[in-house]
Design brief:
With about 150 residues, the chain is of the alpha/beta class. It is built from three helices and nine strands, in the order βαββββαβββαβ.
Length: about 150
């Protein structure tokens, strides 16, 4: 398995589009490829099926990337989906299922659990696909966030 990180200097830099294009290009060459975004903050989501057949939810971009890769969208492709509920609170969708809320004040306390789920999801995809195209979030150059960053290079 090989991994490829698509990173950008800001949010909204075009990482999702580049990731989608790479997934399609690899798939057209007969390479088993999966998209991956450890954490996405978005209210734009799609329904997919968990491997056991239950209904799950992932970010819309990862759903589209999976389709471009010619594979079935699944929760491991976007293990942590944060859906903003207010200025300081977000609804957490963990591995496709609702998992409560997180507040900006207690983000540090809950992040370890989310990071563990993201790492496990990546490992799962890496064991089943030749290439995993990982889409970063925001910018990996935000050194003030580096210690707790599990989305870009953590």
């Amino acid at each position: 398995m090989s991994g490829l990180l698509v990173a950008g200097t800001t949010s909204d830099a075009g990482k999702s589009v580049v990731t989608t294009g790479l997934c399609r290009a690899f798939a057209r060459r007969g390479i088993a490829v999966a998209p991956f975004k450890a954490q996405n903050m978005s209210n734009n989501s799609m329904v997919c099926a968990d491997p056991d057949g239950t209904t799950a939810e992932i970010g819309r971009a990862q759903w589209i990337q999976a389709r471009a890769a010619g594979v079935r969208p699944e929760p491991a492709m976007n293990p942590v989906l944060l859906k903003p509920g207010s200025d300081r609170r977000s609804h957490v969708v963990l591995m496709g299922a609702p998992a409560g809320e997180v507040d900006a004040r207690n983000w540090e306390a809950g992040r370890r659990h989310l990071a563990e789920a993201a790492h496990a999801a990546y490992d799962d995809l890496a064991s089943r696909f030749e290439i995993v195209v990982a889409e970063g979030a925001g910018s990996p150059s935000e050194i003030n966030l580096r210690a707790g960053d599990y989305v870009n290079m953590g």
